[in-house]
Amino acid sequence: MIAVTGASGHLGKATLNYLVAKTDANSLVAIVRDPAKATDLSDKGIQVRTGDYTDPASLAASLAGVDTLLLISSSVVGEERVRQHTNAVNAAKEAGVKHIVYTSATSPSANALFPAAIDHFHTENLLKESGLTYTIFRNNLYLDVLPMIIGDAAQSGQLPFPGGDGKVSYALREDIAEGLANALTSEGHENQIYEIGATSAWSFADIAAILGQKSGKTVDYLDIPASAYEAELAKHLPAPVVSLYTGMAEAIKQNDFNRPDSALEKLLGRQPVNLEDFLKS
């Protein structure tokens, strides 16, 4: 039996949609905080169970009979996220889960520039020390978030971002979901760490050039100061979110997301959607 936490979220739901096409729906468990948000999953025959990262007892109960757990990382950041992941791993051990597949991030370390990568570093260590079999997907930045960063660049002719010449090996969330489903339903992934992204990497100057080709006019990349980016974000977002995005920008500049790899291509059995195709579509 395969369980997926965060099953009502974008990645969890997409992964279950691929899984239900590959295996018996009765062997799938969607773990959610609010079952009312997962009626589309239960309609497909998937078992929907209530479990909360902050409630270890509910997690352990929701994992009864589960062999493999897809632990989709919590949406909070910092020490609370690590606590929630610790709850999930301990609940999995208590319930007799044998294998955890975890959605981590590129370049995890104790002093990562991207704050979320610090949490993933600690969770990866937790998994390695748990005694459970693990598979770690170090997911690169989603192509899906680019429209929010790009904004109206194609119309204005300017793409401001403090990314320097740094490059990113973006991946489409839907491709990651399919890769997860393939890994969950096949052998040979025990105690493996996969760098999940494209086989190429792109800078923001590359993005500007592609946008220019698409729009038929020049789009200039403006490598703005990090302080200007932070000040603009602070007008609209709370401080923790500003810290997350400014850290991500600095990590991009330092090439922490410049990790071309063929792992996702091999898991999919095809080329993942690349940045140029995504922007053109």
TrEMBL record:
<protein>
    <submittedName>
        <fullName>SDR family oxidoreductase</fullName>
    </submittedName>
</protein>
<dbReference type="InterPro" id="IPR036291">
    <property type="entry name" value="NAD(P)-bd_dom_sf"/>
</dbReference>
<dbReference type="InterPro" id="IPR052718">
    <property type="entry name" value="NmrA-type_oxidoreductase"/>
</dbReference>
<dbReference type="Pfam" id="PF05368">
    <property type="entry name" value="NmrA"/>
</dbReference>
<feature type="domain" description="NmrA-like">
    <location>
        <begin position="2"/>
        <end position="258"/>
    </location>
</feature>
<dbReference type="InterPro" id="IPR008030">
    <property type="entry name" value="NmrA-like"/>
</dbReference>
